Amino acid sequence: MPFTISFFVSAMAFPTFVVLLCQVAVFLSLCVVGEGRYSIFRRFKEAQDTKQGSPFEEQWFTQKLDHFNGADTRVWKQRYFINEVFYRPGGPVFLMIGGEGPANPAWMEDGTWLTYAEKLGALCLMLEHRFYGKSHPTVDLSTDNLRFLSSRQALADLAHFRTMIAEARGLTDRKWVAFGGSYPGSLAAWFRLKYPHLVHASVATSAPVYATVNFPEYLEVVWRSLASENTECPLLVKKASDDLVERLKDPRTYGNITKDFNLCSKLQIQTDMDSAYFLETLAGNFMNVVQYNKDNRGFEGVTGTNITIKVLCSVMTDSSLGDPYARYAAVARLMMETTSMKCLDTSFSKYVSDMTNTSWDGPAPIAGRQWVYQTCAEFGFYQSTDSPNQPFAGFPLVYFLKQCTNFYNISAEQVAEAVTQSNEYYGAYDIRSSRIVFPNGSIDPWHALGVTQDISADLPAIFIKGEQK
Question: Are 396 and 449 part of one and the same domain?
């Protein structure tokens, strides 16, 4: 299919736009833009937020603290990056939206969006999300300060940034295109929805647009994705998980379990939360690999991208390693070796201590406290084991909701109300807009909350079945 560039230079018929943007979207669905997702309460797959020798220096934009209170005049510095290498006068502006992690300047040098920027003569910008990376609107991460962290404030950040940069650089009449993957994919769609006068089009890759408190479908997709490699694989994972749950009922097994999974300290199970945290941590090995399977993020400095669904299933079907429980433990050790972890910390009490530390340099996983707050205050997305059609056990919805209360004093009822409000505000699956492309893949569990069928002719979905070779 020929590549059309005239659209951005002059008025262009929408079908031609769809051809162009769909080409962009298909490629971006293989290499998801935006940040790695902190998958609710699992460890964040850490990526470096700086790239050695990067010629694109961080820059700072004066941003409003509260866009919805005119009496509040407080401001702060928001980090952004710019690549002008490919820009030609009259060209479009590509805006990469940062998400729930540090903005990585590697994206200013790599990624398919730059291929299209070169062809179209686009100026490329990337704006870091408030409260993530180095963009610190407040002195700490207290719950009172986190009230300024929301998707609505983030969209207003984008709008103000777009307006002021356009005025300063003479880009007001240029066509702006927003890019995002995962949560930033949702923001890309919502930016076009809520500020159509500021952004001409959006590519919303792997974007969960439907907020839901309980999201057991995530693990159902994990089952299907594992089965797509080997039909026995998820069955063996389930046997191993069920076996582990039974062993946890007998404290005499804790010493062996500690050795089998190379835990940092002897396993302590005193409450249901201790058990759920331990089981979710181990399930996270499979959840992370399925979610990021062959996603081409190596240039970001992410470790473990060589571990794929195929690798996991090859371990789980290797009878020479022992029974399914032993193979499950082998997967855990493999993941630790791959990420250079000396041991696995599964202490729930330590996790609570880390997540309630409100300093910017606290011990919680990168952006952990911030993103979990957003799930409690806006989206839910809790990947529970409440469905029978998935391979794990032991971390039900209540396990996640209790953490909202423990970390932020947000009750289960408040979470439910917040989720309802988010869907009312953004429209959930029923987005009423235009010129937004929604790429998703069947392997990615988040497609269950995304747009996988065309909403209309000018809100097309691209659904890629199976993994990309």
Answer: no
Which pair of tokens denotes residue 423?
Answer: 């869907």
Per-residue pLDDT of the chain (469 residues; tens, 9 = 90+): 332 323 333 334 444 444 455 555 444 443 333 333 334 434 333 434 444 446 789 999 999 999 999 999 999 999 999 999 999 999 999 999 999 999 999 989 988 899 999 999 999 999 999 999 999 999 999 999 999 999 999 999 999 999 999 999 999 999 999 999 999 999 999 999 999 999 999 999 999 999 999 999 999 999 999 999 999 999 999 999 999 999 999 999 999 999 999 999 999 999 999 999 999 999 999 999 998 886 544 444 444 567 899 999 999 999 999 999 999 999 999 999 998 999 999 999 999 999 999 999 988 777 899 999 999 999 999 999 999 999 999 999 999 999 999 999 999 999 999 999 999 999 999 999 999 999 999 989 999 999 999 999 999 999 999 865 4
Task: Provide the domain count of the chain.
Answer: 2
Q: Would 8 be classed as within a structural domain? A: no
Q: Are residues 258 and 401 part of one domain?
A: yes
* CB contact at 8 A, 179 and 348: no
The answer to the question of residue 451 being in a domain is yes
Instruction: Give this prediction's pTM.
Output: 0.90
* Proportion of the chain in helix, strand, coil states, percent, rounded to 5: 45, 10, 45
CATH of the domain at 102: 3.40.50.1820
Tokens 């590549």 -> residue: 3
Q: Does residue 158 sit in the same domain as residue 272? A: no
CATH at 293: 1.20.120.980
d(CA 431, CA 422): 12
Domain holding 367, by residue range, is 213-422
Residues 74 and 95 in one domain: yes
Order of strands across the sheet with 436-441? Answer: 59-64, 75-83, 123-127, 93-97, 176-181, 201-205, 436-441, 461-464
Query: What residues form DSSP beta bridges with 201?
Result: 177
Task: Kindly report the backbone phi and psi dihedral angles of residue 247, in degrees, each rounded to the nearest multiple of 5, phi listed first.
Answer: -65, -35
> Residue 139 has what DSSP assignment?
S
What is the C-alpha separation between 188 and 438, in angstroms, rounded? 10
Rounded Cα distance, 115 and 117, in Å: 5
Residue 30 lies in a domain: no
230 falls within a domain: yes
Rounded alpha-carbon distances, angstroms, from residue 33 to 26, 106, 112, 204, 313: 12, 11, 9, 9, 27
Q: Are residues 445 and 225 in contact, defined by beta-carbon separation less than 8 angstroms?
A: yes
DSSP SS3 for 350: helix
* Cβ atoms of 391 and 222 closer than 8 Å: yes
